[in-house]
Amino acid sequence: MNGYLIFILALLIFNWLLSLIVETLNVRNVSTEIPEEFQGIYDEEKYAKSQHYLKDNTRFGQIQAGIMLPLTIAFILFGGFRWVSDLAQSISGHMILQGLVFGGILMLIGQIAGLPFSIYSTFVIEEKYGFNKTTAKTFVMDLFKGLLLAVLIGTPIFALVLWIFDTVPMAWLWAWAALSIIQLFILFIAPVMILPLFNKFTPLEDGELRARIEEFADAQKYKLSGIFKIDGSKRSTKSNAYFTGFGKTKRIALFDTLIENHSVGELVGVLAHEIGHCKRGHIKKSILISLISSLLMFFILSLFISKQGLYSAFGLENTPLYAGLIFFGFLYAPISMILSLLGNILSRKHEFEADAFAAETTKKPGDLIAALKKLSVDNLSNLTPHPLKVFLEYSHPPVLERIKALKTFES
């Protein structure tokens, strides 16, 4: 039997089993007793609701994984990829056009397969727990815009990579260089051209909140390019804030739900945390790590892109370059997982550092603690995740650990 096929199938099953074990441990780790830090913040009824929310999402995720795993394996074993490749070759004799058709059909299949799960998650689970504000129109428009962006951005990028690997010596290095430039360009334009397609960005109006934020930014010698309120409430009641872009397009975005539910002091604490990421160099480090990771990926890709065994594992007798790029994704999964683990470890460290920056500069760690508590309650967050779940998947430390660290600054 094909060694590549055995490895890929074993990896798919391993990932499913690992997820099953982790999610089972995570649900069993739930404590029915409200943690001391949340006494008086969480009432008994809402705390029980948060646990039901976790269990429903976990159960649904496992059902989805249990359906998608055999479908993926069947698609591989029964020649699904071969059929798509044959169809692409029947449509055009040009390799790049074949690749675009091949990738487009696979993307469409993936979208169709995932659509029922997305609908159920949004309109059943999120609706059940009072989070969903997404209308059918917004859902369809989001889907359409996402597909349109994937075509407009993904098509030329995929075509460029195919052309480089087909014609240029040391293709992996040139492909990495080209994609790195494109990645940085997209990061630069995303806040002003892409994100506004999904949310309305409104400059934060004059008032106490804006004055306090600007005062804090001036004190930290941080030049604000823009503070915006976004209409997150049109999709969900959940709250969030984030920093996006760099240079002249960097923006701080506050969900309207966040502004409604938090005091000015708490919001300044949240903004101080986001500014802390920038002041501590986390954004630049993340971009650099991403570029190095993609360099590694392209180098390893160059080692396998011409291996006949990889194509045979998916039922192809020839070695069309466009198919190799897709198949390599299955092969690269273990390395991707390891890099993700390392990335999450670093990300959790950065979150602690940003919290510390906020506590030290505002002199009011209690405001950020209060904000974290409210966010956890409003979003029905799991307060006691299993350590293995945190290690494998969490980009942020559990909220109780963050609160414990922040309390060291209270004195």
TrEMBL record:
UniProt-annotated location(s): Endoplasmic reticulum membrane
Necessary cofactors: Zn(2+)
CAAX prenyl protease 1 N-terminal domain boundaries: 26-200
Cofactor comment: Binds 1 zinc ion per subunit.
Protein keywords: Endoplasmic reticulum, Hydrolase, Membrane, Metal-binding, Metalloprotease, Protease, Transmembrane, Transmembrane helix, Zinc
Keyword Calcium among record annotations: no
Transmembrane annotation, as ranges: 6-25, 65-84, 96-125, 146-165, 171-195, 287-306, 321-342
Highest taxon above the source species: Bacteria
GO process annotations (BP): CAAX-box protein processing
Family named by the database record: Belongs to the peptidase M48 family.
Domain named Peptidase M48: residues: 203-408
MF annotations from Gene Ontology: metal ion binding; metalloendopeptidase activity
Protein name per UniProt: M48 family metalloprotease
Active site per the UniProt annotation: 274, 355
Residues that coordinate or bind Zn(2+): 273, 277, 351
Keyword Hydrolase: yes
